[in-house]
Amino acid sequence: MKIDTSVLSPKELMKSRYDAFVRQDWNYLVRTSTNQTLEELSGASDIKWLKLNIINSYDNVVEFKAYYKENNKTDVLHEKSTFIQEDGMWKYKDGELYNSKIERNELCPCGSGKKFKRCCA
């Protein structure tokens, strides 16, 4: 799937990059980043991405939680990402990671409709 990244806002680019992680489209992720390498990104091939929640988006910053499963353990990646424009295109620059966890009583990110503590915890 070819995406014209020149028309994407940072929030839209974040969503498209999440989709690329799900599809394991490492080349797209490299093209839409200022410094990530193919070797670095392809190391995430054992991760099954479950859900993306955009928490906040303003200017060139997008805060999100991405839920995933790795080695039969469900977890969350909470990041505030910074994007910059290069040659008229938004690109991922870097991110600040937060030490977050899935709360026991929130809905399970697997989509079962059950509370996390009664499902994938």
Structure description:
With 121 residues, the chain is α+β, with helices and mostly antiparallel strands. Helices cover 21% and strands 37% of the residues. It contains three helices and four strands, in the order H-H-H-E-E-E-E. A hairpin with a 2-residue loop joins strand 2 and strand 3. The radius of gyration is 15 Å and the shape is globular.
- CATH fold category name: Nuclear Transport Factor 2, Chain: A
The total of helices stands at 3
Within the largest sheet, what's the order of strands?
A: 1-2-3-4
- Residue fraction in strands: 35-45%
Q: Can you give the mean pLDDT? A: 90
Radius of gyration: 15 Å
Low-confidence stretches: none
Shape: globular
* Separation, N- and C-terminal Cα atoms: 34 Å
Whole-number tally of structural domains: 1
Q: Largest sheet, if any?
A: 4 strands, antiparallel
User: Which architecture per CATH?
Assistant: Roll
| Helix and strand sequence | HHHEEEE
Structure summary, number of beta strands: 4
Structural class by sheet pairing and helices:
alpha+beta
CATH class: Alpha Beta
Percent range of helical residues: 10-25%
Notable characteristics:
121 residues, Nuclear Transport Factor 2, Chain: A, single chain, globular, 4-stranded antiparallel beta sheet, 37% strand, alpha+beta
Fold topology:
Blueprint lengths: L9 H14 L2 H6 L6 H5 L5 E11 L2 E10 L2 E14 L2 E10 L23
Antiparallel strand pairs: 1-2, 2-3, 3-4
Give the gist of this structure.
This protein has 121 residues and is α+β, with helices and mostly antiparallel strands. The chain is built from 3 helices and 4 strands; from the N terminus they run H-H-H-E-E-E-E.
